[in-house]
Specification:
The protein is α/β, with parallel strands linked by helices. It is built from 18 helices and twelve strands. The strands form two sheets. A six-stranded mixed sheet has the order 3-2-1-4-5-6, with helices on both faces. A six-stranded parallel sheet has the order 9-8-7-10-11-12, sandwiched between helices. Helix 11 links the parallel strand 7 and strand 8. The relative contact order is 0.10.
């Protein structure tokens, strides 16, 4: 029996009514529908990591135009992978989906995860070539080959990560998988419904296309609470920026930032509040991304919000306290703020703990000036937008 190697053929119903692919051959044959080279990507831990790892998708397609890409992830990051033209199937970290994947055969396994359980599962996958991370006979996470060595050292060698490494994580994940990085970018696509939501929300808040909108991603994950500025620092920045009539502010964040954003918003009088857009924080990842698409500039700590802003190709002003700045690629659309306190020998020897209070007024003023500079080098906004 000749089973079609076609992405559309499921084996339990015809692809086209009354067309028999088994007898007459595939009726939907095209380069896009052929299985070609099969990949399984494992990336399930951390929203930022999953979003960053989408940067390899186009690179895979450049090297293997006829290919099928499956992605194994957790439930929480799943929305980040939806509506992605390069992903043919999404599986979840549960018993049923792991059973299915064990029964399949792949040409390449790309495992980004360095956990013992995930690497043990990677060992079980039937793949001709395995890249990334596996588990050795002693139950230790190890690189699958030399291509993953720098990536591996980021986790086990503090001197390498915090002092020696100058590569971005995008470059490192490409090297890990033996791919060429041709200016690879994150891949995140809105649906038509989401684009309509963005336009509807702009009308609701009386969006003024002649103004520059400055987004504040005010929070960070609960796991890394020091990746956000203090409420007072946000109030200072907003106060300084709104001294310029051509600027408006957009407050952004997730459900854990609801009270924080309300406190920032309530710190201003009613007239100033008219210049601040408070966006909902409890509608989920993709709605949050939709609201982040509103501003021209996003000010953020090194958090998931920063990675989303990069994916949306915003001008990003990111400050760093814990993560080495070299690991983040802004694609020449932004600036990195390294607080003065972080650059001192005392900080370098304290185990890389960071207190946002160490962000000085001088650091904050750098952010204000960067926003002003961004606005000044785009003097024809009205003409462009209209």
């Amino acid at each position: 029996m000749n089973i079609p190697r076609c992405k559309k053929f499921s084996g339990y119903k015809p692809c086209i009514s009354y067309e028999n692919c088994l007898e007459n051959g595939c009726q939907m044959d095209s380069p896009d529908n052929r299985m070609g080279t099969k990949f399984l990507i494992i990336s399930l831990d951390g929203l930022s990591n999953v979003l960053l790892n989408t940067s390899v998708l186009k690179s895979i397609k450049n090297k293997f135009p006829e290919s099928t890409i499956y992605w194994l992830t957790a439930e929480k990051p799943k929305p980040l992978l939806e509506n992605n033209q390069y992903i043919d199937g999404i599986y979840f970290w549960n018993e049923t989906d792991r059973m299915i994947l064990r029964s399949m055969k792949f040409d390449f396994l790309f495992n980004t995860e360095k956990s013992i359980s995930v690497c043990a599962f990677a060992n079980e996958i039937n793949a001709v070539t395995k890249k990334g991370f596996l588990l050795n006979a002693d139950g230790q996470v190890v690189p699958a080959d030399e291509d993953a060595l720098d990536n591996y050292r980021l986790g086990v060698d503090d001197n390498f990560r915090f002092k020696e490494n100058k590569k971005s994580k995008i470059q490192i994940i490409h090297e890990t998988f033996g791919l060429e990085n041709k200016n690879a970018e994150y891949i995140y696509n809105f649906t038509e419904q989401e684009l309509k939501l963005i336009d509807d929300f702009k009308r609701q808040v009386h969006f003024d296309r002649s103004k520059f909108y400055i987004g504040f991603n005010t929070g960070s994950s609960l796991k890394f609470p020091d990746k956000k500025m203090t409420i007072g620092q946000h109030i200072y920045l907003i106060t300084e920026l709104l001294k310029n009539d051509y600027m408006r502010v957009v407050l952004l964040g997730g459900k854990e930032d609801t009270e924080r954003n309300l406190e920032i918003y309530d710190a201003f009088d009613s007239e100033t509040q008219k210049k601040i857009i408070y966006t909902p924080t409890n509608l989920g990842l993709r709605s949050g991304a939709s609201f982040m698409n509103i501003p021209d500039v996003v000010i953020t700590g090194d958090s998931f919000g920063m990675h989303m802003a990069i994916a949306l190709k915003k001008y990003v002003i990111a400050w760093f306290g814990i993560t080495p700045p070299a690991e983040v690629e802004l694609f020449e659309k932004g600036a990195k703020i390294i607080p003065e306190a972080v650059q001192t020998p005392a900080y370098a020897s304290n185990g890389h703990n960071f207190n946002p209070e160490l962000i000085s007024e001088s650091d904050l003023n750098k952010i204000v000036n960067l926003v002003k500079r961004f606005c000044l080098i785009q003097p024809f906004k009205n003409m462009i937008d209209n």
